[in-house]
Write a structure and sequence with these properties.
The chain is α/β, with parallel strands linked by helices and 507 residues long. It is built from 15 helices and 20 strands. The strands form 4 sheets. It has a 9-stranded mixed beta sheet with strand order 2-1-3-4-11-10-9-6-7. It has a 5-stranded parallel beta sheet with strand order 14-13-12-15-16, with helices on both faces. Bound molecules: adenosine-5'-triphosphate. The site of adenosine-5'-triphosphate (ATP) has 14 residues, from strand 12, helix 6 and strand 13. One of its GO terms (cellular component) is cytosol.
């Protein structure tokens, strides 16, 4: 994708940096994320944003940026939080360290109603997350906005350097998107972000790279691999799509996946290996152990089926690329190894045999691409489903009986959500087993059976999540049906935990 006049976002380590890129794209402009040391290698940007970060500018290892180079691009620059403090120092001002952290909503009072604050309320809620604050301001700095106490929280230096202490990219900053847009309007020219242009470039890129070779891709039924497979088909290349059924799928899921691909005119091969997976998992109760077994077997089965792939296509998305890069950099904080970065794939990558056409897109953009490829909405709006499947919803050892119970309860819950018009309002929902027996009464007889937990959450990016206040009538109907129809369950619970501290899935 051309980089002329794009928005270059520099990452100083804030947990919100990816969101800045997403928001700029939502506003219709092309944005990319860079490490500060990449500043010499970004083509000609149209505007630059410096993100927030966890460090203090006074730390010995505080991240820095080549200021002369930054100025040399001659384009508007916005410093967010740490980015603003860094700019203030570069312009000759100072930053005061503090141990007191300001975290949460705050009132912003713009001093005028133009430029960055055009159309913004005279008191606007913004989201703060910082300890240090700018103290001495350089002579030519202008205060654009202050907080309720009168402390400067937005500055301008010269005519094209801006700073904001708050985070415009999070939704808790009610007019944050508008402020970001106002900043982008300061640029002379910006590259637009249009999914149709992306699609054209992706299709050309795929045809050029693939030629008449055969491409193999794994399809899970999830959004990313589905869009990828349809994109490859649209490019007219020779593609082999493989679905591995590990026996940990939901009720009739294999049929549903095959049927969905059939509807889209894409042929898929199923590898049925439920016995292999369930055999190796028998008696294993430790969550990490279970994940390792599933991950390892999955790769083995997939590679055995693939044979000597000429080209392997993966539905790697932009957040995976960013996370892998930052994992590689900060070796200490490796969160997880993506299974699209295992050794065999890295080998193929070194030989130029890996195709990752979606690697510049975020999830919602992949959905938009899917729509433009004609993929039906019900497929694109499927809730995320974890790679290890029902294993992560089945604490303790996995048995056929437990899987049957989870499948039946999950099916009842999901169909109730659909019937009541709630499925599309929820990010993810499922039934998970609580393998603890409690006493109940069924048909005048004592029962001593397990409990099932229902979970429904909303989330923007799966990093945080909140439970959904489902209507009592829906919950009651689901509970009644489960208790009447599912053998082995005498208690239904609704999970009201947020993430953090809980996770979305159980294991
Ligand atoms: N059961 C499966 N059969 C074949 N390939 C799979 C299967 N599960 C996962 N994959 C492959 O591994 C990739 C990563 O799987 P993961 O579970 O992390 O899902 P994902 O990245 O959210 O993608 P998707 O939305 O396509 O499921 C998928 O995009 C797909 O190519």
């Amino acid at each position: 994708m051309t980089e002329n006049n794009h928005v270059a976002v520099f990452d100083f380590g804030s947990q919100y940096t990816q969101l800045i890129v997403r928001r700029v794209r939502e506003l219709g402009f092309f944005a990319k994320l860079y490490e500060p040391e990449d500043i010499v290698n970004i083509g000609q940007p149209g505007a630059i944003i410096l993100s927030g970060g966890p460090k203090s500018t006074s730390d010995v290892d505080a991240p820095d940026i080549d200021f002369e180079k930054l100025k040399s691009y001659g384009v508007p620059v916005l410093g967010v939080c740490y980015g603003m403090q860094l700019l203030n120092i570069k312009f000759g001002g100072a930053v005061k360290s503090s141990n007191r952290r300001e975290y949460g909503p705050a009132a912003l009072k713009p001093s005028s109603n133009d430029g960055l604050y055009e159309g913004i309320s005279h008191e606007s809620q913004v989201w703060m997350s910082h300890s240090d604050t700018v103290s001495d301001l350089p002579a030519d700095a202008q205060v654009l906005a202050a907080n309720k106490e009168g402390t400067p929280v937005s500055l301008q230096w010269g005519d094209r350097f801006f700073g904001i202490q708050f985070h415009p990219e999070v939704t808790h900053s009610h007019e944050g998107l508008r402020i970001l847009h106002n900043f982008l309007l300061q640029a002379n020219e910006l590259a637009e972000f249009r999914i149709e242009d992306f699609k054209r470039e992706m299709l050309d890129g795929i045809r050029e790279k693939v030629g008449d070779k055969q491409v193999v891709c794994g399809v899970s039924g999830g959004v990313d691999s589905t869009v990828l497979a349809v994109l490859l088909k649209e490019a007219g290349v020779n593609v082999r799509a493989i679905f591995v059924d590990h026996g940990l799928m939901r009720l009739d899921e294999g049929d549903e996946v095959r049927n969905n691909f059939h509807r889209m005119g894409v042929e898929i091969e199923t590898v049925d290996c439920a016995d292999l997976f369930l055999g190796k998992l028998a008696g294993v109760a430790d969550p990490e152990e279970k994940r390792k077994i599933i991950g390892g077997l999955f790769i083995d089965v997939f590679w055995d089926t693939v044979g000597n792939a000429e080209l392997l296509a993966q539905g790697t998305l932009y957040p995976d690329v960013i996370e892998s890069a930052s994992n590689a950099k900060s070796k200490a904080s490796k969160i997880k190894t993506h299974h699209n970065r295992v050794d065999r794939i890295l080998e193929l990558q070194a030989q130029g045999k890996v195709l990752e056409p979606l690697a510049e897109l975020f999830k919602d953009e992949v959905r938009e691409l899917g729509t433009s490829l004609g993929i039906p909405a019900d497929i694109l709006n499927r809730h995320p489903f974890p790679g290890p499947g029902l294993a992560v919803r089945c604490p303790g050892d996995i048995t056929e009986k437990k899987l049957r119970i989870i499948r039946e309860c999950d099916h009842i819950f999901i169909t109730r959500l659909k019937d009541h018009g709630w499925y599309d309002k929820v990010w993810q929902a499922y039934a998970g087993l609580i393998p603890v027996k409690t006493v109940g009464v069924k048909g005048d007889e004592r029962s001593y059976e397990w409990a099932i937990s229902l979970r429904a959450v909303i989330s923007e990016d799966a990093m945080t999540a909140d439970w959904v206040e489902l209507p009592p009538a829906l919950l009651r109907e689901t509970s009644n049906r489960i208790l009447n129809e599912v053998d082995g369950i005498n208690r239904v619970l609704y999970d009201i935990s947020t993430k953090p501290p809980a996770s979305i899935e159980w294991e």
